[in-house]
Amino acid sequence: MTSPVAAEHIGEEPDDEEPALREQLTEREDKIYVENPHRIDLFGKPLSLIIQSEMSLEVLSHAELGDPSLDYGRLLSTGEIEFEGFYAATPSISVFAQLNLIDERDLDSSNPDGESGFFLERGEMWLHYHEISGGPFSIELGRLDFEDDRLWWWDAELDAVRLTWEQDDFEATVALAHECFPSRSDEGFIDPEHEDVTRILVENSWDWHEDHSVQMFFLHSRDRSGGGNVGDILRETREDEFDGDLAWAGVRFAGAIEAPRRALVGYWLDAGYVRGRETIRESDDFAPGLVEIEDIRTVDVEGWGFDAGTTILFPHPWEPRLTLGWAMGSGDSDPDDGLDRGYRQTSIQGNEPGFGGAERFNAYGVLLEPELSNLSVFSLGLGCTLLESSSLDLVYHNYRLAHAADELRDSRIDTDLTGGGRDVGHGLDLILALEEWESVQFELSASTFRAGRAFGRDEGTWAFGATAALRFAF
Predict the structure, then answer these.
(1) Which residue segments constitute the domains of the chain, with CATH numbers given?
(2) Is 68 helix (H, G, I), strand (E, B) or coil?
C-alpha cells in the first residue's frame, strides 16, 4: 500500500473521500492518514515527514499442537517507530523512504524458540516517475510495496522495478523482483524465503462496470538459493524448506450491487492454478535454535485453489454485516508418485481482505492463519459499525483437509497431525477496531481454536490467542 502522503503527489486518491459502493464492503486502509504532515523546504520543494508508532502485545496459549512434549505458549511485546519521508522533485518524479525501528521481546520463558531483538528494518524506498512524458506509463524502482485488493496473491515489500499502464478503466502492471539486501539490521543475510528468488509479477484489472471489476494475475517464481544437504545442521533462521520453479495464473471477479431495501451485496471469486517443480527439505530439531536436514525430495507440482464469498451490509442502525466465505486449496492423494497436486500459495500472500470493517484481519483465522494448501475453510462472519469509524466482527471458521496429511503446509500454530483424519478443527475470532481519532487507532482481537480429529490425541484441545495494538502518528 502506498503511503497516504505519497499518494497525494503521484496521482492516487487519498482515503478520506466518500467511498464507492464496492469500497464500503471491503476494508478501510490500515494506515493512519496524517492530513498535515511536517514539511521542510528543500531546494524550493516540500519534504514531507511523518512519524508513526505502534505498540502491541500478543498472547498465544499454544505455539504447537499435536505433540504434547512441545506444548508451550508465547507472550510477545513489540514496539515500533516508523519514519517516513516523501519528496516530489518535480510534478512527475518523486522519492519516498521508510525506516522502522523495532523492539521485540518474548516475555514467556517457557518458549524454547523465544527470540528478542532490537533492530532497524527497511521499508518502502523508491523512485517514482509518474506519467512518463505525459503518457499513460509510470515506473517505480527500489523497495516496492506489492498488494492486491484482497491480499490473496501478494502482500509484501520487495526490491523490484515496476511498470504501470493506466487508461480509463484499465490498469496493467508488470514487475521484476529480486531481493538485493537483508531487510533487518540484526541479520546479515536475506530471509531464506526470498534469498536468490527472482519473481515476475503481472496484474491486470478492468473496471467493466461501476463497482464491478475483473482482474488477472500471473507470477513466476524461480528459487536458486539451495538450502543444504541431508545431514547438514542449520540455524532455524537459515532453514529453507522449499525451493521451487513455479508459475501461478489466476483471475478475480469482484463487485457490489445495491439490493432491494438498499442492502449492499458484495461478492468475490478468486481462482488460481500453480504448476512447476519444487524441492522440499524436511528437517527436525537438533538442538535449541538448530535443525538437521533429514530428507530432500523434488516433485512436480500442479494444483488449484479458490476463494469465494459474499458480504451483505444491511441498511439498519449500526450497519450490521453478514459474510459467508468458502476457500479451498487442492491436496495430494499420493505423496509417492512424484506429482504433488496440492495447491500452494505464492509465499508472499497476506490473506487479509477484511469483511467490511475498519481493520484488515486474516480471512482464514486470526489464530491459526493457515496457508490455503490441502485445506478447505468455511467462514461465517457477523459484524457491525461502531460510532463513526470503528467496527466489531465475530467470525467462525471450519477447517477440513482435502486429503489426510501429517501437517499443514504453513500456519501460525505449528501442527503435528497424527490422527489420520481430515477434521482439522474449528476457530472463532473476535476483532474490535477503534478509529475515532485522527491520529490514533486501537485494535483488540481474541481468538480460539479447537483441535479436530486430525490432531490425534490432541483432539479436543483448545488453543487461545489475543492481540492488542495501539497506533498513533505525529
Answers:
(1) 4-473 (2.40.160.100)
(2) helix
